[in-house]
Amino acid sequence: MEVLKIATAGSVDDGKSTLIGRLLYDTKSLTSDKLEAIEKKSKQLGYDYLDFSLATDGLVAEREQGITIDVAHIYFSTANKSYIIADTPGHVEYTRNMVTGASTSQVAIVLIDARKGVIEQTNRHFFINNLLRIKTVIVAINKMDLVDFSEEKYNAIKADFEALMSKRDYQDQKITFIPVSALKGDNVVNKSDKTPWYKGETLLENLENIDNQDVFNVGTPRYPVQYVIRPKTDEFHDFRGYAGKVYGGELSVGDDVVILPSETKSKIKEILFYDKKVQTASRRSSVLITLKDDVNISRGDMIVRANDLPKREKEFTATISWMDSQNLKAGNKYIVQHGVNKVLAKVDRIHHKINPDYSGVDDTVEALAINDIATVSFKLNKPIFYDAFKDHRTNGSFILVDSKSNNTVGAGFIQ
Predict the structure, then answer these.
(1) Which domains does the chain have, with CATH numbers?
(2) What tens digit of pLDDT does each residue of 100-124 get?
(3) Strand partners, 273
(4) Assuming Cys at both sites, which of 68, 71, 283, 378 could form a disulfide with 101, CB separation 3.0 to 4.6 Å?
(5) pLDDT tens digits for 304-356?
(6) What is the pTM of this model?
(7) Is omega for the bond preceding 261 within 30 degrees of 0, making it cis?
(8) How far apart are CA 366 and CA 400, in angstroms?
């Protein structure tokens, strides 16, 4: 069954958690005990309706304040697909959490309060989706029940958002607008009779009809080796296989390949998926590959097609989302974890801080504080094999790790 990863984004009280709770409720994905707990808590709060945000706000502080702080991952399935939703906070001070939640998602749902329209945080959320190259964006104009399901209000917000779209640098996006009321359930799972002027799909219909092939950025295949398999049995005495996951494209039996960093050449002999041999390993499939030549390969090496080599450099420039309370400064040293490889890196230069509301850049900044987004250059103690993030989301991204605390302090997207 297909799995679709979705990130939500929206300002405080735009109704992200309520929308997800409504999806779970209307698809009958809530367990009976969870539903009973929601009913009980809603009554305790004095509501005459079910507060579906209680289905996702897991922290005590979230439930008490009625806001999202942490990134919650919610799982549900229909007959056609399985879904993983990253419910991310909308506050400015939790920008890093939104980057984390959206970094592995293929689809984004951006919520807008119909009473407020496009605001500064909307710019920020759309900027991050643009930065992370998310191809499919659903703009859910929520709380339509509070503006009497006004078509005029909906069209005005849509026009404002389309003006925002003109500022993006990533044009390969499909953007859909849907008027919804998460609280009442209008156009979430079921079509609403209160918006006869809206002829499009409901939110769930839109998600169900997304072709998974359309949400991935097409790239060249990259196969980082996770594990070398050498069975210690007589039957498989000479067997040598390389386990990993295919990113960006497809690999097939007979492909001429190069193993990095040794640059040894070989050819794919077999591709094994569980106990079956397959001709082609599709994008994002976890497989075992054997080669025609007995070559020296270790964990962290990368298998690529001979005519699709990545860059090999000891320095690069990247867009950084800074996530730590300790500032990033020129000269600081961190560990760059790129795939399964770890490389020591030094901050060479902070070029400028990027204002994620599309208001420009600040080239006078000398340090990055928590939640800042900036363009930064690094020098490495040994080369890595990478692609630009715009060409390959997996091989163009990395995390920064503090060598002393071992904390993840930043996420990077190579230019």
Answers:
(1) 2-214 (3.40.50.300), 222-305 (2.40.30.10), 311-414 (2.40.30.10)
(2) 888 888 899 999 999 999 998 888 8
(3) 276
(4) 71
(5) 999 989 999 999 999 999 999 999 999 999 999 998 889 999 999 999 999 88
(6) 0.85
(7) yes
(8) 18
